[in-house]
Amino acid sequence: MCYYTRSIIEKRMQNHLKDQTSPYLLQHVNNPVDWYPWCEEAFEKAKREDKPIFLSIGYSTCHWCHVMAHESFEDENVGKILNQYFVSIKVDKEERPDLDSIYMAVCQAFTGSGGWPTTIFLTPEQKPFFAGTYFPKVGKFGQPGLLDLLITVHEKWHSDRESLLASADVLVSHLRGEKETEADGHQMASEPDNRFPADERNGCRKSAETTHLNEQLLEQALDYFKKSFDKEHGGFGRAPKFPMPHNLLFLMQYYEKRGDREALEMAEKTLQQMFKGGIFDHIGGGFSRYSTDARFLVPHFEKMLYDNALLLLAYTKAFEITENSLYSEVSEKTAHYILREMTSAEGGFYSAQDADSEGVEGKYYVFKPTDTIEILGGEIGQEFNMYYGITDEGNFEGKSIPNLLHQHALKQDFERFIPIVYDYRRRRFELHVDDKVLTSWNGLMIAAMCQVYRVTKDKTYLRAAVNAQGFILAHLCEKDVLYVSHREGRRGGKGFLDDYAFEIFALLALYQATWENTYLEKAIQFCDKVVADFQDEKQGGFFLYGKDNEQLIFRPKETYDGAVFSGNSAMAYNLVQLYYLTEQDKYGKLAEKQLQFMAKEAHRYPAGYAMFLVALSDYLDPPKKMTVVVKDKEELPDMPCRIGLSTIVRVLENPTSQYLLKNDKTTFYVCKGRACQPPVNELEEE
Predict the structure, then answer these.
(1) Among 29-33, 59-63, 80-84, 347-351, which is the least confidently predicted range?
(2) 136, 279, 321, 462 — which has fewest CB within 10 A?
(3) Whether the Cβ atoms of residue 225 and residue 231 lie closer than 8 Å to each other
(4) CATH fold of the domain at 198-205+218-357+434-620
């Protein structure tokens, strides 16, 4: 078929997704399914034609989303049935976390688990009456096929609609009554969540009536981690194993404040094992989504911006505590990967890289021994293969994922050959990059880059953080209003709680890394916006979407720390930080109120709320605080790099009646352990 003819057919087949910017939606633009984005037009069509909604939620680098697309959504028969009997809607979960949260809760209520792709059947009034995740085109292994399911739902819609509507009303009423609805991180559709007790999954916990703010929650969480720790392989619980860096941050903070050596050892073992395993990309840097096995050897190969941001926070913290250079090296390799492959020309950070190449998961990442021998030569190639575990039998479908799990002593001998192997790997296959810029995930990476700068003193990382923040202000912000995403010159809808919470988190990190008060002022502005638009004044906490967002069938409030810590945990942390930085009672009261709310949510299972526990620990046991009265900023080159990551620094550009200049020079006021030291002009490096 000539190109001209093919282009005409493709143009004719394009559905209502053709004007979208989401890479995920655009992957489906030429499907025979007449997809709509989430819009009023789709629901009006469903009402007018008396059809149910077929809702499919996923993201562009999701392996099982690709599988279902190839099996079903590219199939003419499936397309014909969907177009005849349903109105079909595609949603990018990363652009619409509100819809993802609501309908993931629906999926969990129906099936007891969740994942992507998420498949939901709705009434034209947006009420769900059936849900699942991945469905094969034709039933197998006891799982219903999509073709049969579509016919069954169509027939029941016309023959027994009353029972469908009744079940939808009951479910929506139940979900509206829940205090939280949340999915556990970034799971594959077929993947069970075995890490936590059954009654603690899927947002089904009830809050305690009263919970005092004390160390009991911290101790209970630590006890859980100790009991579930895998002493041989690191990590917690059984496979699959997710990085969960905020759990490691909690453990390291617990060691810092309370000296529990075992807490640090668990964090270190996990960090070392993740680096040595295949979940870390030894050729290109950066971490994959999770490990499918207990050893961290075989990953689910997609790379997400947020995972790498949170892992940077954990590895840099480990380096500060232990001074083990391995952790700084891993941090820099990961940061280099982000700057090389996941950063736009304008400075924004991209969202993700796919697990698949040419439709095969992991194809981009694996090697045969002959590959490296061909490019490095016989002797060096063989030594390289031996060091990185590249063997004839392989460790993944007959090929090898480079790893260091078999190495007891790590060497630098082969570092100089990595660029050669990396260039070879990039030439042979391509990876799809989801190049949309998400405000929330960029906030996490900005904070991470600030922290890498502070432990390495390399301003490359600070410039990356400053540039990304500039991108947000230029493209994703209007005064105090944030927007979700940006791609190809167009931005998405108004921001959700995570966008504001993680942006505040970033601004506080920038303030600590630069001592520029403009970042603190902007953080305060966004915090006030969150309180005004997202706060639940009656029950406490913050809703996922605000007063200016689209109002849906109910208003979720996410508190549990899954793959990414929740917006409510982030706000607990932000408010505690702002209280210490501003010394304003307003933020002290807000912080205490948020901590009380989160303590009630966490009381049944504290280990699932690690970032909240970090905030609670800082509230109960204030970190070291430093007030700097600046005489001349030129006197302070790289000063933030000399201050511990946990120290809270407040910068005054002019002296006050309480904080004076000593000897007419820049003066440091340091308080630690609820005691303050005399002001000094010179500061010892921490």
Answers:
(1) 59-63
(2) 136
(3) no
(4) Glycosyltransferase (1.50.10)
